[in-house]
């Protein structure tokens, strides 16, 4: 069947919390607060890393990449989420849904890649401190950022076309207030084996590999730290990793939870699944700037100086 004679709905209908539609307006306020914190907090971090010379170091360059991906993820979901919960405007054109799906999955993969790059930064800083400046040069950091971006674009570029080739005729109602590949492909009245296998390939070749290498980097870090004689020095070395570990947990724990429940939680209410998916997408952009602002004194001091200059 040709690509351009496949039956598609003109638009999809998005859903807030299935079965709890009367609570949508109550959730609008907390969602607006979360978006304000995510956009405001990450924008502040991007600004202070740019203007503060003391933050022009590899660790903070990677943090600014993480903040950028969080801002991009928030911007990708914000229009449909707020329209659904605040205005009860649930319709989204078919092609616009494909575009949103591509960007949501791309920025999610980008964040995973940046967290891996940050773990490499911590590994070099703790295990090979004398080589830190020569290994993580500005050129290498820029190259790692480009590699993460290109990987996301190339890997996920086929997704919209894999959806567009399918006839969508079971329904046009999606399970979330944004567009996701697994949600859209389930509405097809055709064989979706290719979509399933490609989704599995993406999961195993990117997210799973990122988790594996992050885990291995921390095994090497712990081995190196345990070799340090002084207890104070060990704690000091580990303390530089706390913010990154919390960011990794904030990103991967909800993702693994959602994947597990979707595959094995057959009797879990649907609104629980949707709520967990929302946690996976919305919580990391909110928590990351808070984690780094609280746990990293250099970021905290730079933010204080920025507000002091604004007052003056």
Automatic annotation (TrEMBL):
Subcellular localization: Cell membrane; Membrane
InterPro entries reported in the protein's UniProt record: GPCR_Rhodpsn, GPCR_Rhodpsn_7TM, Olfact_rcpt, OR51/52/56-like
Membrane-spanning parts: 26-48, 60-82, 94-120, 140-163, 211-229, 241-265, 271-291
Keyword Cell membrane: yes
Principal location class: membrane
SMART domains reported for this sequence: 7TM_GPCR_Srsx
Bilayer disposition of the protein: Multi-pass membrane protein
Residue span, G-protein coupled receptors family 1 profile domain: 41-292
Entry keywords, A to Z: Cell membrane, G-protein coupled receptor, Membrane, Olfaction, Receptor, Sensory transduction, Transducer, Transmembrane, Transmembrane helix
Record keyword RNA-binding present: no
PANTHER family assigned: OLFACTORY RECEPTOR 51I2, OLFACTORY RECEPTOR 56B1-RELATED
Protein family per UniProt: Belongs to the G-protein coupled receptor 1 family.
Protein known as: Olfactory receptor
Organism listed in the record: Echinops telfairi (Lesser hedgehog tenrec)
């Amino acid at each position: 069947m040709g690509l351009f004679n496949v039956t598609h709905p003109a638009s999809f209908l998005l859903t807030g919390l299935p079965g709890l539609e009367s609570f949508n307006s109550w959730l609008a306020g907390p969602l607006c607060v979360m978006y304000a914190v995510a956009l405001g907090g990450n924008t502040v971090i991007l600004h202070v890393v740019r203007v503060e010379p003391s933050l022009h170091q590899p660790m903070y360059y990677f943090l600014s990449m993480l903040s950028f991906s969080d801002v991009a993820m928030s911007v990708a979901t914000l229009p449909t989420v707020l329209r659904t919960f605040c205005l009860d405007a649930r319709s989204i054109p078919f092609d616009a849904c494909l575009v949103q799906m591509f960007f949501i999955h791309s920025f999610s993969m980008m964040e995973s890649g940046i967290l891996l790059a940050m773990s490499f930064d911590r590994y070099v800083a703790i295990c090979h401190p004398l080589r830190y400046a020569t290994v993580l040069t500005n050129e290498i950091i820029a190259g790692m950022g480009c590699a993460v971006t290109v990987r996301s674009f190339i890997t996920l570029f086929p997704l919209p076309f894999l959806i567009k080739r399918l006839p969508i005729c079971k329904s046009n109602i999606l399970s979330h207030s944004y567009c996701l590949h697994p949600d859209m492909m389930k509405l097809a009245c055709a064989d979706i084996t290719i979509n399933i296998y490609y989704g599995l390939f993406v999961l195993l070749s990117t997210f799973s590999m990122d988790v594996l290498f992050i885990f291995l980097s921390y095994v090497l870090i712990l081995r190196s730290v345990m070799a340090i004689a002084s207890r104070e020095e060990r704690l000091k070395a580990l303390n530089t990793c706390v913010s990154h570990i919390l960011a990794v947990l904030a990103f991967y724990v909800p993702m693994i939870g959602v994947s597990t429940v979707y595959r094995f939680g057959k009797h879990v209410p649907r609104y629980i699944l949707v709520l967990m998916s929302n946690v996976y997408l919305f919580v990391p952009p909110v928590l990351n700037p808070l984690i780094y602002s609280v746990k990293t004194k250099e970021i905290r001091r730079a933010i204080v100086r920025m507000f002091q200059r604004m007052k003056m």
